[in-house]
Design a protein that fits this description.
Strand order of the largest sheet: 1-6-7-12-13
Shape: elongated
Structural class: mainly beta
Largest sheet: 5 strands, antiparallel
Helix content: under 10%
Number of helices: 1
Order of helices and strands: HEEEEEEEEEEEEE
Number of strands: 13
């Protein structure tokens, strides 16, 4: 009896796990426009006294609007009959970055690198990458350094066909459609020092040709 019960309960448990897991889809990247740009800056300073440094970036990218109609692609209405499906393959991303450093009454040494690249990127590459290394030591009463950094991605898109968006032949969607999405991700840091060192790293990726490499935002 125990053996028979185990044989019945085991597939039932597996079925419950599969049902509760469902399907998870990350936001797909948007392809680069025909004309791309790359911009890199490096700022260094070794100052005694007042220091003020500001960086800002704002960038919006869209694929435009295209309408596709699919038939017999495995999508069924609740009645079980295949139907025509209109898919609006349109999506847009906006990313914004800002950083501020204000130091007074001390010795400040820092290096800031900023890279913006509008080309298609893959895993381990970034469209925006900002790195900061700062050391401060107060030399007067009340001397300090205050800094902040923020990075944001806002993505929105309608349903789109998975055909042509997945380069890996094994990464197919069950219904051949990437669902609509609307997500905002924000990350950042703040610090206030009288003596010490700070390093920050902020980057994101949302431009690419392969939806199997989804949107990424990372800070430290």
């Amino acid at each position: 009896m125990k053996v028979k019960s185990f044989g019945v309960i085991t597939p039932l448990l597996f079925g419950m796990v599969i049902f509760m897991t469902g399907i998870v889809c990350a936001d797909p990247v948007v392809p680069a426009v025909p004309e791309t740009q790359a911009l890199s800056t490096v700022t260094t300073a070794d100052v005694a006294g007042l220091v003020m440094e500001t960086d800002t970036v704002a960038w919006t990218l869209s694929n435009g609007t295209q309408i596709y109609t699919a038939f017999g692609n495995g999508i069924y209405q609740p009645t079980g009959h295949p139907e025509w499906l209109a898919v609006s393959d349109s999506y847009q991303y906006t990313t914004a970055y800002d950083a501020n450093i204000v130091a007074q009454g001390g010795l400040t040494a820092f290096t800031k690198t900023m890279n913006v690249d509008t080309r298609n990127k893959v895993i381990s590459q970034s469209n925006i990458n900002a790195k900061t290394g700062l050391t401060f030591a107060a030399t007067a009463d009340g001397g300090n350094v205050v800094g902040s950094e923020n990075l944001m991605i806002d993505g929105v898109g309608d349903s789109m066909l998975a055909n042509g968006r997945f380069l890996c032949p094994f990464a197919t969607q069950p219904d051949n459609v990437i669902p609509s999405f609307c997500n905002i991700v924000q990350a950042g840091s703040k610090y206030d020092l009288t003596i010490g060192s700070v390093t920050t790293d902020a980057n994101d990726r949302f431009v690419g040709s392969d939806a199997t490499n989804p949107v990424v935002l990372w800070t430290s």
